[in-house]
Structures are given as structure tokens and as C-alpha cells.
Amino acid sequence: MDEDSLARRLAYLKRRTNMEAMTDDNLSMHIEDAYSFFLDYTNRANDVGEIIDPLICEIAAMRAETQGFTNAVHASEGSISRMMSTELPTVLLTRLNRYRLLLAINTEGV
pTM of the prediction? Predict the structure, then answer.
């Protein structure tokens, strides 16, 4: 991901979420992780442009919110109780599937 894409996605994430307590470096790390996940899940080698910014930022926000809660389903701090999942919701997976490329297998010579 180039610096312009990262800066654009960082600004989008900060504008759309309540992540003021997190540093730019921390949010950038989550954006880069979400972008890597996007490329891996969709079997792509290159960015598809600004059209995926909202999707990347939603994945990054989810990762940031669940940071430190690996495999946790329920967490309590005093009188505050939270239910969470570290897996992507079906809605996000459906949106990711729109960009998914099929892997072709060459069977010639087999």
C-alpha cells in the first residue's frame, strides 16, 4: 500500500470512528493489517483503489476494537460488560466476496 492510500484510509478511519485515543501509528498498523487481509482473502496482488476504503476501514476498526481480546467472547471491566467476536461478521464477508478472484489451476500435462 502506498503512502497516499494509507494517509487517505487513516483520515477516513479517524473521521468515521471513535478512535481518538489511538495513535496514528496504531491505527495505521490496523489499516495495513486489514489491507493485507483484504488482498489475501480476495486472492489479489494489487489495490483496487478508493472504492475499498470503507471496507478496509471497517475491518481495521473492528481489529482495533477487539485488540487484546483474542478468542474472547465476553469481557467485563467493573460494571461495564461487553460481548464481542474476533471473527468478521457475515455482512463484511459478503462485501469482501464481491472482490474475490477465483484461483485457476493449470491441469495441462497432468
Answer: 0.73
